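User: quick one, sequence for these tokens?
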């Protein structure tokens, strides 16, 4: 039995077990957590690219929320996303008179207090619904909580708290805005070496080890930034709260909430509570057995440069309240339904379909259309401190380009918007052009790499090539020459200028080298001629020549010369690439296995190589990679599955996909992608992009080239799949449905159908 068959069998067994904890509907849009999931609860994510927050088991607890590009610039630290006051909390007490109030959010999360617990993430509608029977001092209350972050009105969010009591009497509710304290300890990470960071973490009794189920290994240093509340108030009569805040050395923000009581009902008492950490409306309300009551908290958020202040937010929140929750929900569903008109449909594999939808959901919930913002690897969370890495250009951008080009465009626009700081950085390092940071601040594009990783910032410089390749890919997919001239070409030009100044000419060998780099296989540091870097640089220099001509500019003759003479390490017999310069000693299969060579198969790079050379690279760098290793890292699908599909190894491609689905990087019940199976760095959009790329470009064989959307390699289908359809692909003004299926003779074929309307 082949290892592919073994992995497929193992995957089916694991998925059968997982199915007990996470159920989905037939279309794979709905994920449900049930009581068995509570001991290892991994939060889901709600967002619209501008606002992001996490779920919590009760559906009513306060969770940290973040605004796009709203950063804390505390001196000595690297920038980090500032947690804004928690807007989603609702608390409830059904305690009878004379017993003292016992609050739902403090009740032990066990079967004595919570019965029939279920939480549902509806990815098609962008809503989270939590339901259970809550028992407080003998009083049982059926609870249903629905929360959304609006896709239709990006400044708005809301949570509806509905109860049905089995008793008569008075209940108490609290609708707060929780004002987070500044995180302690704070570390001067912009100044500390790696050993110093480790020592400081240990001195505070903390650890850099992961804490299951949902704490990453770097949580001790990836803590949230701070928002200082500069003004806050509320009004009991109008059931309203509002506040203004500011991040240290950063931007201002605003927030407001408007509470709606059940229709036709009146509160017995309403009290405004104002404290150092809590601004709240506390309400007492008389209920009757068997009747249902819905309370809704409407919230509006803004930050400088996106919206206004607390006064304007209050107007938005009150207007949302006037229109009602059902209207907000209807608009939310319509907005998400419009997004899902572009989709990936898999027939014959419900699990692969479910994961395709969850990966797309997290990408869509974390990106913005028609802006100049780009998400970090872990969405709007403190993971990787919300900085923008090459992950955005190389992993997320290609996953969105064909299905949601308006969101992909925002990612390349971010690089144009932050071109000037990249140019300044190149000058500081003694080079021409633009040197994009390893970790870019999402608001101002400055280099925010912690000092402990400064070697990556200075020498893992392939990021500047990744940026330029994404710009060119957007042009090829859009066909928009005016965009290229005005927006893409300046970025590509400055990247080419950087590489022309960074490469050095070896006169005796008549070649160009790029020395003193860190490979994408990061255990190889300060080496010459990393193959992935050099191949990418040659691609960028050739792109720059083409882009210059299309933009009516004169290309630098040096670009073409360097691209032609840049050394690309090859095996002596020419059968495959070498990972690095031959002078670099290999120390076993580490990082991606085979060094950086699997990344030569990334679709955006679209390596121009013979079938023989591709097969040689695959046989050396991808095929020997243990499946357990490939399955346990989220960045595996794009290079590994695409590589197998590129060389026509359908059995291996299917095995790698099955391993990815069952390898432990998808955390139940909401298919949260973590960076690896063990480190719990969650909402890992890099891995989400890799999975989607394996479907868009791997099994289809499609590549984006000057000639169009080309069937560069033969399409493949895993044995159990009936078909794979890319719905509503957008390419050069056309909208297409692209289908991979077997014909009557059993051969796999790709067909295209042009849509008359999007």
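Assistant:
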């Amino acid at each position: 039995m082949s290892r592919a068959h073994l992995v497929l069998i193992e995957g089916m067994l694991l998925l059968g077990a997982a199915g007990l904890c996470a159920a989905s509907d037939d279309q794979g849009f709905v994920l449900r957590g049930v009581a068995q999931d509570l001991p290892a609860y991994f939060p889901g994510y709600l967002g619209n690219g501008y606002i992001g927050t996490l779920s919590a088991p009760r559906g009513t607890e306060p969770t940290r929320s973040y605004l796009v590009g709203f950063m804390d610039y505390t001196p000595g630290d690297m920038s980090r996303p500032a947690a804004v006051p928690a807007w989603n909390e609702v608390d409830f007490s059904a305690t009878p008179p004379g017993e003292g109030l016992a609050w739902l959010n403090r009740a032990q999360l066990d079967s004595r207090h919570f019965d029939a617990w279920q939480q549902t993430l509806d990815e098609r509608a962008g809503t989270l619904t939590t339901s259970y029977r809550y028992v407080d001092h003998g009083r049982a209350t059926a609870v249903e909580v629905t929360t959304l972050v609006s896709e239709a009105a990006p400044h708005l969010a809301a949570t509806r708290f509905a109860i049905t009591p089995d008793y008569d009497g008075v209940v108490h509710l609290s609708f707060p805005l929780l004002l987070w304290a500044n995180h302690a300890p704070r570390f001067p990470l912009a100044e500390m070496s790696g050993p110093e960071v480790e020592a400081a973490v240990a001195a505070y009794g903390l650890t850099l080890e992961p804490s299951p189920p949902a704490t990453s290994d770097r949580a001790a240093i990836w803590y949230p930034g701070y928002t200082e509340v500069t003004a806050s108030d509320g009004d009991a009569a109008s059931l309203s709260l509002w506040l203004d805040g500011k991040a240290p050395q950063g931007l201002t923000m605003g927030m407001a909430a408007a509470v709606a009581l059940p229709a036709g009902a009146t509160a017995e008492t309403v009290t405004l509570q104002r404290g150092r950490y809590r601004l709240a409306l506390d309400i007492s309300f008389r209920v009757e057995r068997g009747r249902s009551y819905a309370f809704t908290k409407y919230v509006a958020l803004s930050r400088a440069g996106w919206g206004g202040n607390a006064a304007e937010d209050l107007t938005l929140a009150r207007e949302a309240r006037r229109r009602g929750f059902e209207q907000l929900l209807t608009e939310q569903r319509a907005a998400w339904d419009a997004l899902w008109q572009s989709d990936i449909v898999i027939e014959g594999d419900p699990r692969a379909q479910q994961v395709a939808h969850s990966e797309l959901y997290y990408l869509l919930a974390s990106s913005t259309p028609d802006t100049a913002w780009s998400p970090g690897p872990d969405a709007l969370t403190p993971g990787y401190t919300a900085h923008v890495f090459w992950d955005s250009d190389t992993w997320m951008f290609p996953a969105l380009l064909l299905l949601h080009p308006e969101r992909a465009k925002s990612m390349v626009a971010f690089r144009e918007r932050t071109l000037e700081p990249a140019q300044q950085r190149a000058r500081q390092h003694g080079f021409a052009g633009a040197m994009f940071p390893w970790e870019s601040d999402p608001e101002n594009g400055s280099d925010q790499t912690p000092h402990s990783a400064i070697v990556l910032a200075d020498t893992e410089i392939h990021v500047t090539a990744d940026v330029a390749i994404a710009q060119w890919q957007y042009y090829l997919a859009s066909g928009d020459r005016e965009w290229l001239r005005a927006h893409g070409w300046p970025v590509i030009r400055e990247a080419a200028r950087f590489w022309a100044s960074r490469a050095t000419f070896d006169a005796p060998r008549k070649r160009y080298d790029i020395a003193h780099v860190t490979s994408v296989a990061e255990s190889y540091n300060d080496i010459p001629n990393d193959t992935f870097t050099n191949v990418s640089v040659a691609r960028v220099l050739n792109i720059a020549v083409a882009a210059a001509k299309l933009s009516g500019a004169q290309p630098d003759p040096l670009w073409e010369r360097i691209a032609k003479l840049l050394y690309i390490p090859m095996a002596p017999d020419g059968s495959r690439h070498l990972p690095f310069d031959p002078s670099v000693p290999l120390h076993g299969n580490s990082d991606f296995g085979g060094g950086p060579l699997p990344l030569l198969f990334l679709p955006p790079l679209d390596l121009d190589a013979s079938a023989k050379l591709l097969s040689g690279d695959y046989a050396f760098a991808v095929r020997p990679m243990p499946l357990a290793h490939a399955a346990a890292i989220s960045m595996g699908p794009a290079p590994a599955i695409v590589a197998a599909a590129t060389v026509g190894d359908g059995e291996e491609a299917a095995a790698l996909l099955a391993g990815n689905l069952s390898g432990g990087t998808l955390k139940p019940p909401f298919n949260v992608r973590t960076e690896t199976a063990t480190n719990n760095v969650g909402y890992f959009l890099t891995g989400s992009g890799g999975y989607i790329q394996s479907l868009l470009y791997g099994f289809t064989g499609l590549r984006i080239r000057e000639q169009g959307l080309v069937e560069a390699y033969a399409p493949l289908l895993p044995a159990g799949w009936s078909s794979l359809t890319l719905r509503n692909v957008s390419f050069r003004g056309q909208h297409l449905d692209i289908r991979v299926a077997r014909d009557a003779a059993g051969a796999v074929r790709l067909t295209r159908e042009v849509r008359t309307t999007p």
